[in-house]
Amino acid sequence: MKSTLIGLxxxxxxxxxxxxxxxxxxxxxxxxxxxxxxxxxxxxxKDYPAAVQLAKKALQKSPDYTDIxxxxxxxxxxxxxPDSARVxxxxxxxxxxxxxxxxLAYASMEYxxxxxxxxxxxxxxxxxxxxxxxxxxxxxAKVLNASNKYAEANQQLNVLLxxxxxxxxxxxxxxxxxxxxAGNEIGxxxxxxxxxxxxxxxxHIMSVSYKRRTPIGSVIFKTNFANKFGxxxxxxxxxxxxxxxxxxxxxxxTGYSNSSGLFPKFRTGASLYANLPASFEAEIxxxxxxxxxxxxxxxxxxxxxxKNLWFNLRTYLTPGEDNISHSYAGTVRYYTxxxxxxxxxxxxxxxxxxxxxxxxxxxxxxxxxxxxxxxEYNLSVKEKNxxxxxxxxxxxxxxxxxxxxxIDITVGYRRRF
Length: 417
Description:
Blueprint: H1 2-28, H2 31-43, H3 48-61, H4 66-78, H5 82-94, H6 100-112, H7 116-129, H8 134-146, H9 150-163, H10 168-176, E1 184-195, E2 203-214, E3 217-228, E4 231-242, E5 248-256, E6 266-276, E7 280-290, E8 294-306, E9 309-319, E10 324-335, E11 342-349, E12 370-381, E13 385-399, E14 402-416
Antiparallel strand pairs: 1-2, 1-14, 2-3, 3-4, 4-5, 5-6, 6-7, 7-8, 8-9, 9-10, 10-11, 11-12, 12-13, 13-14
Helix pairs in contact: 2-3, 3-4, 4-5, 4-6, 5-6, 6-7, 6-8, 7-8, 8-9, 9-10
Pfam families: TPR_19, YaiO
Protein name: YaiO family outer membrane beta-barrel protein
Domain YaiO beta-barrel: 184-355
């Protein structure tokens, strides 16, 4: 018992001696050395309280050291002490600091605390002093998006991407809000399809669309006029892109036509999209087409943004009586400016329900071999005028061992207002 007591007393004295020694060492360190130690505690050891104490000691030596003050504010933010962080940041604001990192740290804290208006106020101050700041510009776009100010967010992103088209994070955000940007949009699309052997007549399809942004997401009404097999037909479609959260949004679609053989009588579809970490996105959903019988197709896709490139892989799986038919497509887009300006390349197999060839799914022809490759180009003029053109080549086995070369050309124009 006596030896145990002596051991405990010795341990206490040793700890006290080491603490006194460390304190004495801290007292001889410069503010830069203390700042370096604080960063080590925060980043290497994740010991934020120890980092706070070291930062405070550094500020006792250099009260006007802005970088340390900003770092102290960030530490309080990471510790979920927003009131303490505000005290530090407001002190810097009262000194009229024009430090870029100060504005970024302060605005980020308010953004994470869902104080979007306050964050925008701070960001506008920072951008007044640093108009070319990529970090401040991107954060402003995020705050505007979180405030449902999609048009302003898109405008901010277009400015950022004009200067830095390889900004992956800005590119991802621009595409994620693309369907929410315009209050209203009208569109006109013409599609021409030529067949060497399978059909004697070319196909012509004209589409007229109107899109309206609502508080929950965009809604699109579309009318399609077709001339196929020498006959005319009409289809009506309604689509919506409701936003569920910052991470998830959906596609919902339905359509009706009484033009038998030209369009499905009914069509429905739904997909859930997720914006994932590391600039990935994913989708899972279904499409249903009602001809004389129902055709059910299940789809999944994964996409990845890298600088000003977008890569996407998609599959459609169609269960049949004897097997499951597969359709695959890979897409690469090279963006030149914003979300509406890009060159695209697509290669794939099979027929998808998004194509104007969907009525070829009748009679199980979708089980035969189809290869496709195509190019597309989208261009925006003054953000409100959107032009598109695409061309796709198909090599289709429309009967066993009988193939056809087919061409699909589409041109379109959309006007936002």
